[in-house]
Amino acid sequence: MNLVYPLAHLMGGVILLCAFSMLSQRRLAAMITLYQVQALTLSAAAFWQGFAQGAGDLYLTGLITLAIKGILLPMGMRQIVQRFNMVRAVETTMPVGLSMILGVGLIGIAVLVVLPTTVSAVSLTREDLAISLSVVLLGLLVMTLRRHAIAQVIGFLSTENGLVLAATGMPGMPFVAELSVALLVLLAFLVIGVFLFRIREHFDTLDLVGIEEIERRGR
Amino acid sequence: MVLFFLRLVASLAHIALVFALAPLLLGLVTKLRARLLGRRGPPLLQPYRNLRRLLHKTTLVPDTATDLYPIWPFVSFTAIAVAAMLVPGFCLGLLTSDLSDFITLVGLLALARGAAMLAGLESGFGFGGAAAAREALFSVFAEAALLVVLVSFVLIAHSPTVDGIAAAFRTGHIGISVSLGFALAAMLAVALTETGRIPTDNPSGHLELAMVHEAMLLEYSGRFLLLFEYAAMLRLMVWMCLIGTVFFPFGMARAGEILSWPGGLVLWAGKLGVMAVALSLFEIGTAKMRVFRVPEFLGVAMLLGVLAGVFLFVAARIGA
Amino acid sequence: MNLCLPAVFLPLLAAPAMGVFGTRAQGAVANLVLNVIVFGFTIAVFFGPGSGLIHADGLGMIFGVLTSFVSLMTALSNLSFVWGGNEVLSLRRWRVYHAMCQVVLGSTLLGLYADNIGLLWVAVEGATIAATLGVSLPRTASALEAAWKYFILGGVGIALALFGTMLVYLAAQPALGPGLPAMSFAALTEHASKLDGSLLTLAFVFLLFGYGTKAALVPLHGWLPDAYAEGPIPLTTALSTLMLNVALIAILRYRHLMQANFAGGGGALQPGVFLLTLGLASLLLTAFSLSRRRDARRFFGFSSVEHSGIAVFAFGIGGAAAIFGGLLHMLVHTLVKSALFQALMRGAALRGSAAPGNYGFSHLRGMVHSNKYTGWLLGACVFALTGLPPSGLFASEFIIISQTIQRDPYVSLPLGLGLVLCAVAIIRNIGPLVFGHAPPHTKHQKAGIGINLVGLQLVLAFMVAFAMPWFLLHSLSSVAAALQ
Amino acid sequence: MHLRLDALSVLFLCILLPQIVASALAERRGPVTFWVFAAAMVLTLLAGDAFTLIFGFELMSAASWLLVLRGDARPATLYAGIAMFSAACLIPAVFLPASSLAFMLVLLGAGAKAGLAPLHSWLPRAHPAPPAGVSALMSGGMVKVSLYILIRYGFIEFGAAAQPWWGSVLIVAGAASVLIGALRAMLEVELKTMLACSTVEHVGLIAVGLGIALRAKAMGNLDLASLALQGALLCAVAHGLFKPMLFLGAGAVKNATGTTSLDWLGGLMRGMPRLGMLMLVGAAGMAALPLGPGFAPEFLLLHAVIRAAGTGGILARIGFTALLAGLGLSAALALGAVVRLIGIGFLGRPRSLHAAAAEDAKRGTLAGMGLLAVLCVPVALLPGVVLGMLEPVIALLAPNSAPAPLSYAPLSLGILFALTAGAAVLGLRRFAVRGTREVAAWTGGFGSPPAWLPFGDPLTQPSATGFAEPVRRAIARGLLAPKGVDPAEAYLLLPLSKVSLRLTRVAEHIRRSTMRQRLAFVFGALVMFLLALGLGEGG
Question: Can you give chain C as a three-state secondary structure string?
Fold first, then answer.
């Protein structure tokens, strides 16, 4: 039997699982690990899709993903966590249970939105789409629920993973590699930004409350 | 041609009579009042004497008065005098009958009132100003009441002129209607206010704080005061003629037919006499009211006027 | 031949060089020269629209010229801004600043000329990153904060836009087959009715949110006021005019896809309701946010929110006339806004320094006492924003309102309410700002020759609205008809 | 953008032009804005299509707003708000088909700009702000332009769809304006504010006339319609003449004494006799006294009301009778206000050294006022002729109606006046003692004034406030909101401003939101949209 789609779905499922369990994690280190797993799975998925569709640039995408997201970024973030000794637990703004219920709701919405829409589309991309959409939404949810900049960055990164997943799932979509590179530039700036904030002594902690303080001062 | 001539004569006669009898009327009212109060009272012709005395007095002008000081008496007098020419007395169909629009009449009275108020303010003197302010307050309600009464007249008589209204009413088939009764009451109240009689003002009062009409003229003397006095007498005459003509038009002469004149004259004199008696009776019967009661008094009059209009409508519905 | 390519790539290629070499003065001059050349190219594009991935359709041509013109004006006023020593930046940052100006220009033009949805997305992303860097340049606490906000929110927007873009491809791919055609606006528009309508609708929502973030529609506008207020002011001009336009035009193009699909029975929803919702939200929230601003640049940032809201509203109303009104509104608003920000810069310069933080109304008030001409021009610019005649915006708003009445009378009530409230909130600042009592120790000074640029742009705005040259009228109306 | 000229626009141009000339004379080549303002009004009157009309109207608002702003910044915002509100009402209205909704919008838009109750309270604040010439033009001209739009759309454009109740609404609004305007004119102490209030009153009078005409026309009673139209239009003409005159005079007073507060004036007749005479003419018009320019319109309107009381059911009867009472009330109040203006301001003793030292107005002002005064004469003495000129307009507004001839003949009245006055003068010459003797006025029992008050102690003569006191106590308590505030402000503007304040607070709250909250907005909105989409497509 054809292994293409089952495997693709399996990997998609793993990625979604990572994104979902990020919600439940309280500690930064664990979130980073989850992200790493997610990225690695993604690169695998990219390779697999490239193999399945016989599209060369998907290999490139997978390579980039593996190298940068799977290895470099997690290392960098661990660095930050170590240096700014933030190994301690992240306080979330919302009890984990509630946030997970929200996450389930989001997945439900994603399925609700995607499944009826893609009747005519290639049936297989349908589930891929549902999965990647839920990954995107979950990432956004993490961004809005977490206080620490690192946590938010991770949320953003997982959103971006969802995007790449969708891109790889698109049958024969051109520019996938280019787009993922462009996204990477964005991520790079994001992480650099985090460094900037840390290096320059404007906010004694990355906790965005610092920013909000200035915001409160009016105007 | 003859008709026109007759009307001219009638008009002139009317004017002459009105102007000549106005002081007498005042004298009559004063006399009657004094008698009813058990006093002898001044002679009937006292008003004429007053006027003559004023003729021979030097006119004193306060140094704070402006150049317009002499104007106001003339304006006030002229407005009232013209009103007196317009309101028919003993006979209908005068030359001025077309001019005698009710609203014009109201306007003339307002003009005279305005001139008097300005006269009160002329020399920047406290009592005159206070009196003018009160007069302004009274006039607000008086004018409203008068206009409201007008509705029922015009709707019954289908004519806005006093002459036309009288002509319509004297052809008796309107009969006595409730609304006209209300209208009469309202009109009387207004008349009392306008002519400055008790209960709104006391013509024979001498306390500046209490006076309205007289207080506005305190700074005037000599011939200017004469004009004001004469205007006041004429005003009384005008109102009596107005009420007599509108509500008791029976027996009024026609300018066209000379034979009806004597009857008209007699009846007119009779009406004036009756009204003078009624007025003096009313005046001794009531006391002067506080300034801020007057608006209520006149407000009631206004309400009566509205009621008159409404009842007229109802009556029309019932009749139809 | 394709003249779009040089217009797009000249600034993009020059940017790295400018980022590395040159003093700040040289950078400013180079900036100006490049702008002049690019302006020439954008005009020449009318004769060489070209074809393929990057080519100019009517919309691209018109707004390309507008873009390069505005950025030329900005570059001109840039000279005095740079030489005026208004901004204290290290040389490195000056270089970055000039490079960023070029990147913004280039990527904006790319966004206008791109015929490929992916390319459009890349352009917008590049512009965003450049603008973020620019905003963070002053390195003040509030500037970094603003940049950070801008970056996070803009990043989210960009991610959503990418997702939408991919969905569009997915919707088109069955009909147009895999590969480039399924990403080309021309091809998509051609076969709009064959696309998968329901996917397209889903895509539109994401695109609306993605590009709506760039267009600063409520509730996606969170980044805007700070980003406007904290960056160097010439950049603010670019932000509030050029990038807004790109985003709006992107929304317009996708809206047309959807509308055409709906009309062709492709099963898409009517795009109108989404656009109307966001447009009205922007209008009404702005109306009440304006009234308490104490900083002029934040204030006018919010007014940009209002105006992009109006434009989106017009697109939502639909129909050739309304689209025409919306485009006209964008044109005029671009000119007026850039004039306004330049006038503000000159005014602040008269009051000492044009660096961020010197734009409080209390600091700028009574401008006529500093310089009569500047004061009156400033007043005229602010007044032009209210949309009362003789402002050019009157014409466009008039068209939009009349179309609203005819097509959708009920939404005209909130529209009118929002317009009135915004206009009142804007107009009440003119009195103090222009004629009020100047702060103590204000001397009457000479305004530079450059102040005439402001007048020039105002006059242009008036001309565009009331005495539109026939060819512009013709091409704009044909564009509107094509995109209805 | 094309122009048109028909009888209506010609009439309003004729109303407008003398004012422009007079104001220009008084302002002697006023600022550019002034001319833009004037030109915009003319453009509005000449407009041949909706765009031109709105353009001119808005340009007029904008220019006048700038003029108000230069005069006094405080009312400017309120004025701008009202102007834009009227724009927001008018622009839709001109596009809707003829319907009740469209007419109501026009009524709101034009009425707000014309100062019809309950949207009038900006007028007494904004009109006094700019220099006299501009105030004159705003009060005499701009208001008329708004009424022009009301007439044009109520009678011509929407004439086919007219309903009787349109007229009734107009009448009610007009009556309210008449009452409040007259009452406030009696109470205000500032000269220009008082004149502005009386403008509200006259706008109300015109509106009442128009309303009766609209109602009668819709009910098919064309003669009544034409009578009411005669009244309304003649009132517009007369008001357009005497009100600018009074405003110019007020400006001259301000120039001469530095104040327009009646409580600091007095005895100006000595210092500025010519101005005083011209003011008398205008005042006669404002008080609608016989032989003045204001009486004929009042006369016609009252007759129209009385005639209208005969039509319709019991409600109409009660309503119109009450309306008549209201008109009488306000007519007397207007007389009181005028007496107060002339008597306190120009007669009596000065209340301040400035007033004592006032010198007569400049030649330009006098020329402008003189021009208007001369134009008042035909309106005052030959209203029949003026009405004859109005024929085509009335034919345009109420087709195939036969206006009844005017039953008020000021000329013959005037002759009677002249005869009587002449007789009185001659009689006194003949019989009375000649000459007068100037004596010190009676101090009314007060002590002699201190030396530094050569014209006596101001406190010993009635003040404007005191003069209005009886009316305040007797009437204002009932009709105005507590503390004599205009009811429109107390019950309309104040609540609105409170609401907007609350909303502003909400907006501020949103603006201050932290970044996570802003992210949450985006995310929440997205989820909302997606949810709506999913449900919409699933269901």
Answer: CCCHHHHHHHHHHHHHHHHHCCCHHHHHHHHHHHHHHHHHHHHHCCCCCCCCCECCCHHHHHHHHHHHHHHHHHHHHHHHHHHCCCCCCCHHHHHHHHHHHHHHHHHHHHHHHECEHHHHHHHHHHHHHHHHHHHHCCCCHHHHHHHHHHHHHHHHHHHHHHHHHHHHHHHHHHHHCCCHHHHEHHHHHHCHHHCCHHHHHHHHHHHHHHHHHHCCCCCCCCCHHHHHHHCCHHHHHHHHHHHHHHHHHHHHHHHHHHHHHHHCCCCCCCCHHHHHHHHHHHHHHHHHHHHHCCEHHHHHHHHHHHHHHHHHHHHHHCCHHHHHHHHHHHHHHHHHHHHHHHHHHHHHHHCCCCCCCCCEHHHHCCHHHHCHHHHHHHHHHHHHHCCCCCCHHHHHHHHHHHHHHHHCHHHHHHHHHHHHHHHHHHHHHHHHHHHCCCCCCCCCCCCCCCHHHHHHHHHHHHHHHHCCCHHHHHHHHHHHHHHC
